[in-house]
Structure to design on (585 residues):
């Protein structure tokens, strides 16, 4: 029905006046009931009218004050016209072009009339008609509103529909522009609301074709509507294209992250503040053998062997409350009761405000390393035991033979005794190395004089040896508990491997800005190249170190983040330099 005129430029009989410019039909039947005038596009702004209908040359028309309906071919983009301010875009090669154009003009004129009615009422300080006010509110709302009858035809649309969708869907099927992949679901949701009106409203999110052929994501909420003229739904729409794009990008990022985490051989997991599992990767679930539902309700300590749970709880407390990163070796307990050794790391998970919201952890299977260590431990114990027992037997037999053999055989007895002594010393050194390395924890600040005192207490030089040790500087260095034993081993090595009857050893100290160096000099034959090459990583089956002492020193120095090196000594033998990191304060 043609809108009743209330204000604005109009003919004497009250009909609305249209300006036609460009490629717009000249047939007066197309605009029956309107007064029309064909004008040049550039003169539109000089004339008054209720509406302008423009063709391809629409740019000058939108510069005027009258609302504009643009009449374009389907291959011409509609977005520029809408962005410039055109109220409607109608496709002239559409089979229903005439009806669509007339409907667009009627809608534009009617909405302008309603806006003018509200403005007039405001100017006159009176309340506008309720129906006019309601429709004006709907026209300017962020969401658009349509009424859809039971057959799916749109029988009414607010102005926001055109603003959202770029066209006027009145008279069209609500489902026609829905994406084919979403259409069935939207139709089922629509029918559900009609069949069960007592259930209230329904919601659907789907893709809808825009006027220019692109797709937008639309979120709709529909409620049943029944009156004397309509049996259908009142539908409110909201354009959620940007939100859907962000959600899709987030899903893609999460999927990418999940694939990366699942491809890792290490396990990954996230704990809630109460210690239950929030998230994990596939290797972690495969390791434990629990399904997702069970794992989600499980506390972290429940998948740890009982003897390690107190240690794990203490580490978790440090992460949650002290915000520390912790590394612990433990054993996971699988659903089948198997114990699997792992090294696990935990760090605090924080939100944007810095609040701890959980614990993020990783773990690496150390089964192979644990097996090697167990085998080496057994081998070490057996060898130490056998060396100690057999060397004792050799020493006893050598002493027995030394008292009974002829003088010309004493050389052979002495050689046997020397070998026995070497074996015995090697066994003792192996025990000391094993004990010392077991006590090697994290390096700590230790006064250098204390390390020297420990070394001198452990070192027992022969009376004929000359040992000169300078005064150690009163500085603290980064050292481990066996550092004194390592320095004693260097002193003993310098004396024992020197064939001179009166070996000489000197110890010097030098302090630098970030380090302290301890130099042990001797006048012996020097350390064999095979020894230093082995320590540098060049040991092989044919060219290798024969001693354990220098390895012990090297291991201790490495554990303190120090450095071991070799040079020629002024005394004529070898110089062994141990560099400790200096501690401030």
């Amino acid at each position: 029905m043609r809108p009743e005129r209330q204000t604005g430029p109009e003919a004497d009989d009250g009909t609305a006046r249209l300006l036609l410019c460009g490629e717009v039909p000249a047939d007066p039947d197309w605009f029956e009931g309107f007064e029309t005038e064909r004008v040049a596009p550039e003169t539109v702004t000089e004339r008054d009218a209720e509406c302008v209908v423009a063709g391809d040359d629409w740019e000058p028309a939108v510069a005027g004050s009258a609302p504009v309906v643009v009449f374009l071919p389907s291959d011409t983009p509609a977005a520029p016209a809408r962005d410039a301010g055109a109220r409607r875009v109608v496709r002239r090669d559409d089979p229903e072009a005439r009806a669509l154009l007339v409907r667009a003009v009627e809608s534009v004129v009617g909405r302008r009339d309603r806006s003018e009615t509200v403005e007039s009422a405001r100017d006159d300080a009176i309340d506008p008609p309720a129906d006019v006010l309601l429709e004006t509110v709907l026209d300017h709302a962020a969401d658009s509103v349509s009424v859809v009858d039971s057959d799916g035809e749109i029988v009414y649309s607010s102005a926001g529909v055109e603003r959202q969708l770029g066209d006027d869907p009145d008279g069209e099927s609500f489902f026609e522009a829905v994406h084919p992949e979403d259409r069935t679901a939207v139709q089922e949701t629509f029918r559900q609301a009609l069949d069960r009106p007592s259930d209230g409203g329904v919601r659907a999110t789907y893709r809808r074709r825009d006027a220019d052929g692109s797709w937008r994501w639309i979120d709709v909420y529909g409620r049943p509507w029944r009156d004397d003229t309509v049996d259908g739904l009142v539908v409110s729409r909201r354009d959620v294209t940007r939100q859907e794009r962000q959600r899709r990008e987030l899903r893609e990022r999460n999927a990418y992250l999940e694939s990366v985490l699942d491809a890792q051989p290490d396990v990954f997991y996230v704990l809630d503040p109460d210690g239950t599992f929030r998230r994990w990767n596939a290797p972690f679930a495969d390791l434990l053998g629990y399904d997702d539902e069970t794992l989600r309700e499980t506390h972290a300590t429940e998948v740890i062997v009982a003897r390690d749970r107190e240690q794990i709880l203490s580490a978790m407390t440090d992460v949650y409350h002290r915000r520390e990163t912790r590394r612990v070796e433990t054993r996971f307990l699988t659903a089948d009761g198997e114990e699997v050794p792992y090294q696990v790391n935990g760090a605090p998970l924080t939100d944007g405000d810095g609040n701890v919201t959980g614990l993020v952890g990783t773990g690496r299977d150390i089964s192979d390393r644990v097996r090697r260590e167990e085998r080496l431990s057994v081998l070490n114990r057996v060898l130490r035991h056998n060396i100690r027992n057999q060397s004792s037997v050799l020493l006893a037999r050598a002493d027995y033979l030394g008292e009974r053999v002829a003088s010309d055989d004493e050389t052979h007895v002495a050689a046997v005794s020397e070998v026995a002594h070497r074996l015995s010393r090697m066994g003792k050194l192996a025990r000391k190395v094993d004990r010392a390395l077991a006590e090697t924890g994290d390096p700590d600040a230790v006064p250098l004089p204390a390390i020297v005192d420990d070394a001198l207490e452990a070192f027992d030089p022969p009376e004929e040896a000359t040992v000169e040790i300078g005064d150690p500087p009163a500085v603290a260095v980064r050292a481990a508990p066996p550092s004194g034993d390592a320095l004693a081993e260097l002193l003993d090595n310098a004396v024992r491997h020197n064939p001179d009857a009166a070996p000489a050893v000197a110890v010097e100290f030098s302090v630098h800005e970030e380090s302290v160096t301890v130099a042990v000099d001797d006048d012996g034959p020097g350390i064999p190249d095979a020894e230093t090459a082995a320590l540098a990583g060049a040991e092989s089956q044919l060219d290798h170190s024969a001693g354990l002492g220098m390895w012990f020193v090297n291991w201790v120095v490495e554990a303190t983040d120090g450095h071991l090196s070799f040079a020629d000594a002024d005394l004529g033998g070898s110089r062994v330099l141990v560099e400790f990191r200096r501690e401030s304060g």
Remarks:
- Residues 367-402 form the longest helix (36 residues).
- Residues 1-8, 112-134, 538-546 have pLDDT under 50 and may be disordered.
- Residues 321 and 356 are 8 Å apart (CA to CA).
- The radius of gyration is 46 Å.
